[in-house]
Amino acid sequence: MSADPTGWFETLYADAARGEATVPWDRGTPNPLLVEWLANHPLEADGKRAIVVGSGFGDDAELIAARGFATTAFDIAPTAVELARKRYPESVVDYRRADLLELPTDWLQGFDLVIESITVQSLPPELHRRAAAAVASLCGVGGLVVVITAARTTEVVPDGPPWPLTADELGHYAVDGVQRAVVETVPVGAGEIRWRAEFRRPDPANDKDRTEAHWL
C-alpha cells in the first residue's frame, strides 16, 4: 500500500482547477442511482442532519440539501472543497475539508442520514474495512447510511483505483450497532454492476417494528 493512499485526490483536483485534468467521476449532476433512490424513498427531513462523504464538486450534497436536510459535506482534498463552493456559491451546504480515516470526534454518530457514493472504493482494499467502519460511525441512533459503489463479483483484485467492493466487504459497514438492511445489485451497462445498500442504526428506545417509511 502507498504511504499516502489518499494524496492523489488533491493532485487530481488541483490539476483540474488549472484545466490540466478532468475528474472522471464528475458528471455535473448528482449520482443517478442516488437520484433514483431518493425518488423511491420519501424521507422526513425536518430537523434532520445529513452528511455526504467524499463530496467532490458537491452535486450529491446539493441534492440532499434540496430535500430539506441540514447538510454537511466533506472531502479530503481542499481544492475539491474550494471548487464545490465555487460551483454552488449560494449553497446552504456546510462544505468541510476532512479525512474519512481521521474524522472529527464531534461528528461521530452525529447524523440522521449518511451518503457514501464511490468513496471507499477509491481506497486500496486493505483500507476498505477501516473506511467503511468510519462511514458507519457517522450514523446516529435511528439513522440511515446509503452506500453506492461498484461491485466486484470475481476473485481478481483490480489494479485500481477504483477497487470495487465485494459482497463480503459490504459487511464492513455493519459494525458498532449499525445493521445491514437492504442490498440491491443495479446493472449500469457494459456488464458493470453497482451495489446500492442501506444500513441502519436501530433506536433501542423504539421497540416497535420499523418499516422503511418510518426511518428518518
UniProtKB/TrEMBL annotation:
Q: Pinpoint the Methyltransferase domain residues.
A: 53-143
Matches recorded under SUPFAM superfamilies: S-adenosyl-L-methionine-dependent methyltransferases
Q: Which CDD domains match?
A: AdoMet_MTases
- Please list the coiled coil stretches: none
What keywords tag this UniProt record?
Answer: Methyltransferase, Transferase
* Entry keyword annotation includes Secreted: no
* Example GO BP: methylation
Could you tell me what this protein is called?
Thiopurine S-methyltransferase (TPMT)
* UniProt organism field: Microlunatus soli
What lineage, starting at the top, does this entry show? Bacteria, Bacillati, Actinomycetota, Actinomycetes, Propionibacteriales
